[in-house]
């Protein structure tokens, strides 16, 4: 007997986004760069100049111009200071961010927060919400004219261009071209990451950079090594053989964690997607001669669907993969992978160190990524790029002096990994929040509690790095994999572009596709029903999305 | 006449003169109830076990543990250290107690005012109540009202907007209308004001109903989190359920390297531990309210 | 009869019967109303705190539903958003297949709930009430209400670990060589599963209200009946059930008002495995289009229509109750 008030309160509450666990990838948009970060704007906006920091922290594994991130095996023993003095003016800086960590203690009981305030020279007023409730809170803040100084724009809220224009500051005069040189930490962020914040031909915010490398198709390297199997099949046929050898139903072990990662429409890689990559299918769309073709419309996708159905029928896929509730998708797949009941699982690259933290297999545990092989001699495999930035930070409209004050603060926050500033920003107070352990930095439980929930990294962050605390092997493996994956990758040509219908209808359109894919793979519907699904997708909004994107693409040339 | 007379009588376990039910019926009843209880208890045991389980067992068992091999308090330590959960617990207790008192006061008075068909405005106000039940305002207009009344970021925003629940008013009204009218009439004839009638006659006779409605409100306040999400920016003012949200819904691991010499509790254990912590206060309070559901009131009250 | 009521009656009686002018009749009606107001003044004063909260926090924001007629954007606000008249309501009438599918699913689930979820607590309350031992009754009751406090996220996780493809049930089946059932991924069983989850979660809790109602039945009635030689069945039929009747009917009428709301959080958590075709209901449809798609006006429009349907059903059900001699929600 739910009282009505509870039910109505729940009406707006999203307990799980349909595309759960892929919050950062919800955008399915990013930059349209094919290779190389140092790119001039093809959107007509003057992007900030890229001025790499001279005398910054030196990584163990160097970053590469094509987008491979720098790697650090340990946190530098003597971190350099890359800024001088306090950036703030003693005022209060308010920010709205989402968090994926438990709530942090209030300021009075939070040495980490106090240290951050002191280093910045401001009072941070952080309004955090759990990631799943982000849209509701953003909407009331906008509608109630209660926006704080800084707002994290996560995903693509509905009507984003109009929203940005109405409520947020155009940052192009402050940061475009050489203007960014006033803020060295911001200039240290390569241009390709800035595209995330470009709408209406103007720059609206500072990105939180990640990488262009998309999801990784992980495999349990330790298990494959123990069985003496080759972890890099050279064709689809070899891939099938590998799956067969890995599956042992009597021991409750399956080769693949899922057939179609239903977060897949947001960049997640399941088996279906992996086979698409083998066949050389582009990511979401392919653009040539002024027309966009959707991946769903390509014959290779139907073929990949057929193959996936065969794999599922052969029993190589974990039987519970289609009966997992939406909230727990990634966690559940992770669990199977950790437990060894699924040997291969697609997940984001950031999960690489997390697997080590959560593993229960002991010191022999090792994972690595599998590159999609060429399907056969007639295909050329590709990997998929994702949106290189996780989100961007927008500034509420304010007088010039205030914006500049805020920029100084965000500039400090964007100090790169390995610097003294970054140590305070991410870890906190030595002895309380972190200690030195084996020449590296180790967070204490207090440190995790105090810093996690504040998620200050979503307000400002410098270029991302590969760093797995205490797991040098993970860092090296990830770096090596990135060097393989990025040169072979293709991007979604529509990333960074806005389509209104896509914003409004993405859930419905995704639903049409996912429903059909799941039914076909499980054998509830024949493969021959796929073309009618595609037609349904087209008429329910897919065609409209296509034409809007084509228009935007034409304009951006 | 001095006023209504009451005798508190405990309902006898067998009514004198009735034959007890047959063995067959008794055993069917027992089986049904045992099955019901088992179906409820087993998952709860699982919740508690998972909160006490180690990472290895959680991973091996697919995330839900029925019987832990090894008991680890790491999850409880993690959530109770740092004071966030305990603080949120205190806030929730305050809001629940204050809210329930305020809600009961507003609801009982309104329900009583509507318990006299034919009184002035009876039907329009009742229609008002019904519409309030069936039409729900959107989150944005609600936010605007709360904001312009100056309640943003204050604990009152978690109490006052939800102080009156139309459903509860209607149910309590039904209970009031079920009371013997002679008692109320006799009090009024004696010149008692409406407020006195309410206080001295109606409320004491409605303990069961008040306990139930009070429980409904209390649980509503205890479980509410969405209004905290919208109206409270300062996380130090968040009630327990809001804190739980950040544990239960987030999908990322606790983050970072294990602290020296410590073990990071598994995700599921944290979630279940927070859940257990949030249910315990209700388990403590409920038995006190339960007394009121079984009382036989009104016995002999009308005769005399 | 109080002195005040006497006087009111006298006033009424004092009005001349025939040959009144309309103005006279109106003024006498007004006088009667004024007298009633005067009589019930204290009563109305009591209603003020509750009404004030309702008006401020329920009705004032309800005005915001005007956005059902607008193309509302949060950054424009209510006043500045473009007026579109009835355009937002088109979704209900234009035969949109997803909407119709959602409506169909909603109706099926609500029918199942009315048949299974509504009576279950009544049956359970009667069962508990008939127990001889107070102690067992209290113990069982305090166990059964526990699931109500679990959030849907946890309940779904529990059901999955029991009934999912690699959950306890299927593991046992698989290790004994039988074919697995995979209940969670079965689109055909989705509605039944949703309903059984609600029964599991809320039945124990819902019995509280009925137990409270049962406790208000005068014990003397039972004593008198047993003295008259009535069997337990007869006591059940003639004392217990009638004692429950009015509250059960009231709750049923109110339930009808919410017939188009069958749950949101519970459903959206479990749509993944079975697909939107089998699982989309009105509230999740509105969510996908409204909140996620930024079409606020449309969600407000559907909300308004749901409310109107609810009101119509409640009023109709109340009339039907009157036909059976029950007081229902209110008397005319």
What can you see in these coordinates?
- The complex is a heterotrimer of chains A (557), B (304) and C (332).
- Chain A is an alpha/beta fold.
- In chain A, 36% of the residues lie in helices and 14% in strands.
- Chain A has two domains: 49-212 and 388-472, D-Maltodextrin-Binding Protein, domain 2, CATH 3.40.190; 216-384 and 497-556, Periplasmic binding protein-like II (D-Maltodextrin-Binding Protein, domain 2, 3-Layer(aba) Sandwich).
- Chain A has 18 helices and 19 strands.
- Chain B has 304 residues and is an all-alpha fold.
- Chain B is globular.
- Chain C has 18 helices and two strands.
- In chain C, strands 1-2 form a two-stranded antiparallel ribbon.
- Chains in contact: A-B, A-C, B-C.
- At the B-C interface, helix 1, helix 4, helix 5, helix 6 and helix 7 of B face helix 2, helix 3, helix 8, helix 9 and helix 11 of C.
Please give a handful of descriptors for the protein shown.
heterotrimer, A: 557 residues, alpha/beta, D-Maltodextrin-Binding Protein, domain 2, 2 domains, 5-stranded mixed beta sheet, 4-stranded mixed beta sheet, 18 helices, 19 strands, 36% helix, globular, disordered N terminus, C: 332 residues, mainly alpha, MetI-like fold, two-stranded antiparallel ribbon, flat
């Amino acid at each position: 007997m739910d009282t009505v008030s509870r039910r109505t309160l729940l009406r707006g509450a999203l307990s799980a986004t349909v595309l759960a666990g892929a919050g950062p990838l919800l955008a399915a948009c990013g930059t349209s760069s094919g290779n190389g970060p140092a790119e001039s704007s093809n959107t007509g906006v003057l992007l900030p100049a890229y001025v790499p920091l001279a005398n910054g922290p030196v990584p163990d594994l160097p970053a590469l111009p094509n987008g491979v991130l720098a790697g650090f095996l340990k946190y530098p023993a003597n971190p350099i200071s890359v800024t001088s003095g306090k950036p703030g003016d003693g005022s209060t800086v308010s920010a709205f961010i989402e968090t994926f960590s438990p709530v942090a203690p209030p300021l009075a009981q939070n040495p980490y927060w106090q240290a951050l305030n002191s280093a910045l020279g401001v009072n941070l007023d952080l309004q955090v919400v759990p990631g799943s409730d982000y849209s509701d809170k953003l909407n009331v803040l906008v509608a109630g004219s209660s926006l704080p100084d800084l707002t994290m724009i996560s995903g693509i809220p509905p009507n984003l261009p109009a929203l940005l224009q109405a409520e947020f500051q155009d940052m192009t005069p402050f940061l475009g071209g050489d203007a960014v040189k006033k803020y060295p930490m911001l200039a240290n962020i390569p241009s390709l990451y800035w595209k995330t914040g470009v709408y209406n031909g103007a720059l609206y915010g500072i990105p939180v950079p990640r990488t262009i490398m998309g999801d990784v198709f992980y495999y349990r390297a330790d298990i494959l090594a123990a069985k003496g199997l080759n972890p890099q099949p050279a064709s689809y046929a070899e891939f099938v053989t590998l799956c067969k050898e890995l599956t042992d139903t009597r021991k409750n072990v399956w080769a693949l964690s899922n057939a179609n990662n239903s977060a897949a429409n947001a960049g997640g890689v399941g088996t279906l997607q992996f086979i698409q990559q083998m066949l050389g299918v582009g990511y979401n769309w392919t653009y040539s001669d002024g027309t966009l073709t959707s991946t769903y419309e390509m014959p290779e996708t139907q073929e990949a669907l057929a193959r996936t159905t065969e794999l599922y029928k052969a029993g190589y896929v974990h039987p519970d993969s289609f009966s997992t509730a939406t909230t727990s998708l990634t966690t559940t797949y992770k669990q199977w992978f950790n437990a060894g009941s699924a040997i291969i699982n697609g997940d984001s690259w950031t999960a690489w160190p997390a697997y080590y933290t959560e593993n229960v297999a002991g010191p022999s545990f090792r994972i690595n990524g599998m590159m999609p092989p060429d399907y056969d001699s007639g295909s050329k495999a590709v990997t998929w790029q994702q949106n290189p930035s996780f989100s961007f930070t927008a500034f509420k409209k304010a007088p010039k002096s205030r914006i500049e004050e805020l920029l100084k603060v965000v500039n400090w926050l964007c100090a790169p990994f390995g610097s003294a500033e970054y140590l305070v920003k991410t870890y906190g107070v030595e002895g309380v929040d972190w200690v030195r352990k084996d020449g590296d930095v180790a967070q204490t439980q207090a440190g995790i509690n105090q810093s996690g929930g504040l998620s200050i990294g979503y307000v400002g962050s410098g270029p991302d790095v590969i760093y797995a605390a205490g797991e040098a092997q993970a860092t090296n493996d990830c770096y090596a994999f990135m060097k393989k994956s990025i040169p072979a990758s293709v991007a979604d040509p529509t990333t960074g572009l806005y389509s209104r219908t896509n914003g409004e209808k993405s859930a419905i359109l995704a639903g049409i596709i996912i429903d059909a894919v799941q039914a076909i793979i499980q054998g509830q519907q024949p493969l021959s029903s796929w073309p009618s699904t595609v037609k349904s997708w087209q008429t329910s909004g897919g065609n409209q999305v296509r034409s809007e994107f084509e228009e935007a693409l034409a304009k951006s040339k | 006449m001095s006023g209504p007379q009451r005798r508190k009588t405990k309902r006898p376990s067998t009514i004198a003169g009735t034959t007890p039910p047959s063995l067959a019926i008794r055993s069917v009843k027992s089986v049904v109830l045992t099955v019901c209880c088992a179906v409820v208890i087993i998952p709860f045991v699982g919740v508690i076990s998972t909160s006490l389980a180690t990472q290895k067992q959680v991973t091996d068992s697919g995330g839900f543990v029925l019987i832990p091999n090894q008991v680890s308090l790491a999850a409880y330590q993690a959530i109770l250290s740092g004071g966030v959960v305990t603080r949120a617990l205190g806030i929730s207790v305050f809001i629940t107690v204050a809210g329930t008192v305020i809600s009961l006061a507003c609801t009982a008075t309104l329900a009583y005012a509507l318990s006299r068909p034919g009184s002035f405005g009876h039907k329009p106000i009742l229609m008002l109540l019904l519409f309030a039940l069936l039409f729900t305002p959107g989150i944005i207009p609600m936010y605007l009202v709360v904001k312009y009344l100056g309640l943003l970021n204050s604990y009152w925003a978690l109490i006052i907007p939800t102080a009156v629940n139309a459903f509860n008013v209607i149910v309590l009204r039904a209970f009031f209308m079920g009371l013997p009218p002679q008692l109320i009439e006799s009090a009024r004839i004696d010149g008692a004001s409406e407020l006195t009638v309410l206080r001295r006659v109606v409320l004491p006779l409605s303990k069961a109903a008040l306990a139930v409605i009070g429980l409904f409100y209390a649980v509503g306040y205890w479980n509410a989190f969405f209004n905290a999400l919208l109206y409270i920016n300062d996380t130090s003012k968040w009630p327990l359920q809001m804190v739980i949200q950040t544990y239960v819904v987030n999908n990322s691991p606790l983050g970072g390297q294990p602290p020296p010499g410590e073990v990071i509790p598994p995700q599921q254990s944290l979630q279940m531990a927070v859940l257990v912590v949030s249910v315990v206060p209700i388990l403590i309070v409920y038995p006190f309210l339960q007394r009121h559901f079984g009382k036989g009131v009104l016995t002999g009250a009308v005769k005399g | 009869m109080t002195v005040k009521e006497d006087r009111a009656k006298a006033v009424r009686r004092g009005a001349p019967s025939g040959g009144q002018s309309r103005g006279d009749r109106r003024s006498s009606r007004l006088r009667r109303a004024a007298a009633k107001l005067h009589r019930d003044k204290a009563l109305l004063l009591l209603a003020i705190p509750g009404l004030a909260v309702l008006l401020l926090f329920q009705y004032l924001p309800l005005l915001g539903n005007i956005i059902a007629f607008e193309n509302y954007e949060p950054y424009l606000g209510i006043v500045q958003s473009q007026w579109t008249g009835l355009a937002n309501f088109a979704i209900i009438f234009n035969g949109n297949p997803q909407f119709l599918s959602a409506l169909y699913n909603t109706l099926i689930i609500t029918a199942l709930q009315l048949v299974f979820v509504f009576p279950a607590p009544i049956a359970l309350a009667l069962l508990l009430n008939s127990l001889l031992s107070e102690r067992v009754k209290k113990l069982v009751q305090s166990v059964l209400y526990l699931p109500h406090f679990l959030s849907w996220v946890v309940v779904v996780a529990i059901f999955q670990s029991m009934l999912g493809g690699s959950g306890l049930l299927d593991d046992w089946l698989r290790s004994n060589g039988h074919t697995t059932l995979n209940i969670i991924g079965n689109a055909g069983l989705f509605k039944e599963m949703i309903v059984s989850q609600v029964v599991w979660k809320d039945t124990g809790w819902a019995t509280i209200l009925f137990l409270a109602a049962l406790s208000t039945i005068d014990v003397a009635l039972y004593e008198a009946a047993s003295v008259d030689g009535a069997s337990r069945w007869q006591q059940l039929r003639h004392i217990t059930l009638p004692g429950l009747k009015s509250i059960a009917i009231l709750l049923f009428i109110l339930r009808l008002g919410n017939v188009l709301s069958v749950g949101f959080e519970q459903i959206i958590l479990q749509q993944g495995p079975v697909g939107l075709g089998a699982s989309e209901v009105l509230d999740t449809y509105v969510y996908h289009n409204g909140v996620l798609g930024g079409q606020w006006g449309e969600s407000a429009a559907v909300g308004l229509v749901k409310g109107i349907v609810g009101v119509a059903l409640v009023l109709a059900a109340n009339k039907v109750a009157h036909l059976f001699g029950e007081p229902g929600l209110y008397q005319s």
